[in-house]
Amino acid sequence: MAMNRIQFQPGLSLPAFLRRYGTESACERALQQARWPQDFVCPACAGTRHSRFEHRGRPMWQCSSSSCRKQSSLRAGTVFDNTKLPLTTWLLALYLLSQSKTNLSALELMRHLGVCYRTAWRMKHKLMQTMSERDAGRRLGGLVQIDDAYLGGERNGGKAGRGSENKRPFVIGVSTNEAGHPRHAVMEPVPGFTKAALAEWAGRRLEPQCDVYSDGLGAFRAVVDLGHAHTVIQSSGRAATEQANSRWVNIVLSNLKRSLDGAYHAFAFCKYAHRYLAEAAWRFNRRFELEALVPRLLVAAARCLPWSERRLRNVPVYVS
Ligand SMILES: [Zn+2]
To answer: Rounded to whole angstroms, how far apart are CA atoms 82 and 97?
Structure first.
């Protein structure tokens, strides 16, 4: 069965991780490779001529362009900026968040890393932000199953959660191949299940001319206006999960809810829903590549701009 290929992957064992990322200098080399795979590139002028020196035991680069002369550290301008934590602690967080089968809460991260809760919260949110930015441009193509759902509650009768801060509407899309196997997923909050909101979502998240399958929610007809074929799955409840064209979106959705329900406090979870959903989608989209996830997340983190705690906490609140 297809799922076994994922579940029985060897992944990256802890001893193998420690051999690769067990010292500060090994982590510095890994971050340098992730950030500048060929050679140093000046963040200010994109020049490559440079000199190197050490400042307080950490490697520094100075741009040799006479009009620039900018000094750069390995971390400045990345998601690791403005933190005194050793890179070994950061890499361990990358390891735990990427290898865990389900979502790992900030509280668990705090215990594993031996840092205070606030530090663990910042690390977790910075890395979820990294995952979110990495998948921000992903579009689903071909056969796409989509569904509407609420975080913090089910949609019963269409009124549940409306205007409530601890319930967030979101759209989940799963693309499948011709054999009916899932390829990629996108999960993202929407301001509400209106035709305008769904059209905006589909405009960003679907490639042209998809075959879209959904339940009977009227707003999903917005995809037709964008040139997609749209099939409404008529059955409801249990029978729907058995239909091939809605099977995977239902499986991914129920796995998501099970994994999130156990890990997070509802209110905080809903406020930052876009990041938690992006984390789950990032992991799903890379489910066949468990062993390569640490270096891949490190590359994404090196490209993600710094996020202050204030900016992390300042998220738009949707009113549905
Ligand atoms: Zn420069």
So the answer is: 21
Q: What is the pLDDT of residues 32-66, one digit of tens each?
A: 999 999 999 999 999 999 999 999 888 899 999 99
**Å from CA of 304 to ligand 1 middle:** 19
Predicted confidence band at 233 (pLDDT cuts at 50, 70, 90)? confident
Helix (H, G, I), strand (E, B) or coil at 309: helix
> Cα–Cα distances in Å, from 146 out to 102, 142, 176?
22, 12, 11
**For residue 39, how far is its CA from the centre of ligand 1 (angstroms)?**
13
- Please report the pLDDT score of residue 316 as a whole number: 72
Averaged pLDDT score across all residues of the chain: 88
* Interval between CA 100 and ligand 1 midpoint (Å): 39
Residue 225's identity, in one-letter code, is: D
Give the pairing type, strands 71-73 and 143-151: unpaired
pLDDT digits (tens, 9 = 90+) for 80-93: 998 889 999 999 99
**How far is the centre of ligand 1, averaged over its atoms, from the C-alpha of 63 (Å)?**
5
- Edge-to-edge strand list for the sheet holding 168-176: 182-189, 168-176, 143-151, 211-214, 229-232
Centroid of ligand 1 to alpha carbon of 70 (angstroms): 5
With 50 as the cut, is the pLDDT of residue 154 above it?
Answer: no
**pLDDT band of 235, cuts 50, 70, 90:** low
Q: Which candidate, 98, 112, 84, 122, places its Cα nearest to that of 11?
A: 98
Find the DSSP H helices in the chain: 2-7, 14-21, 24-35, 87-99, 106-113, 117-134, 195-205, 222-225, 238-241, 244-263, 266-271, 273-285, 293-303, 309-313
Separation of CA 306 and ligand 1 centre (Å)? 19
Ligand 1 center to residue 52 CA distance, Å?
13
The pTM is what? 0.89
Distance between Cα 64 and ligand 1 center (Å): 7
